[in-house]
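Exercise 7b. C-alpha cells:
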C-alpha cells in the first residue's frame, strides 16, 4: 500500500510544527524546509486545519500552529484524515466486481492485515516520530531558530 503525497506532506508539516519554535511556521517556510510545493502544502494545511490538528492565521505574524499536544495525535489519525481509500484489494472497497468475491478467503486476510497496520499507526504518535528534536531541527534548517527560543 502506498499513501498519497498529501498524507506524506501532512506528516512533514506536523513534524515541522512539532520541532519549530512555538510550534508555528508559515506554509512558505515549511515548503522551503522540506523542498516541496507550496501549493500542495496549502491544500494539506487546509485539510489538517479542518481536522482540528492545526490552526491557521492570516496576515502579518500569521501562519500555521500545532493546536494539539503531539502525544495525542496518532499517525493513524493523520492517515485517516488525509486518505480516502484504504481498500488495498477490490473486495475491501465499495464496488465489488471480482468474480470470486464472497467465495475466496482473501478478503478476510487483507482486512486483518489492514487492521494490524492501523493498530501500529494508532499506537505511534507525532511525539514518538518527532523524538529526535535536534536531528529534525538540523535537517529542516531550524537549528539556528531554536537557539533563539
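Sequence design result:
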Amino acid at each position: 500500500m502506498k499513501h498519497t503525497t498529501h498524507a506524506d506532506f501532512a506528516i512533514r508539516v506536523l513534524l515541522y510544527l512539532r520541532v519549530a519554535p512555538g510550534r508555528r511556521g508559515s506554509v512558505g517556510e515549511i515548503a522551503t524546509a522540506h523542498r516541496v510545493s507550496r501549493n500542495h502544502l496549502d491544500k494539506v494545511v487546509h485539510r489538517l486545519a479542518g481536522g482540528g490538528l492545526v490552526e491557521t492565521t492570516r496576515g502579518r505574524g500569521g501562519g500555521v500552529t500545532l493546536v494539539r499536544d503531539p502525544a495525542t495525535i496518532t499517525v493513524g489519525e493523520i492517515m485517516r484524515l488525509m486518505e480516502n481509500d484504504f481498500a488495498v484489494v477490490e473486495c475491501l472497497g465499495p464496488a465489488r466486481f471480482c468474480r470470486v468475491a464472497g467465495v475466496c478467503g482473501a478478503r478476510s486476510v487483507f482486512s486483518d492485515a489492514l487492521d494490524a497496520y492501523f493498530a501500529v499507526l494508532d499506537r505511534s504518535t507525532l511525539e514518538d516520530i518527532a523524538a529526535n528534536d535536534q536531528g529534525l531541527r538540523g535537517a529542516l534548517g531550524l537549528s539556528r531558530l531554536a537557539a533563539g527560543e
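Instructor comment: Residues 106-122 form the longest helix (17 residues). The CA atoms of residues 51 and 81 lie 7 Å apart.
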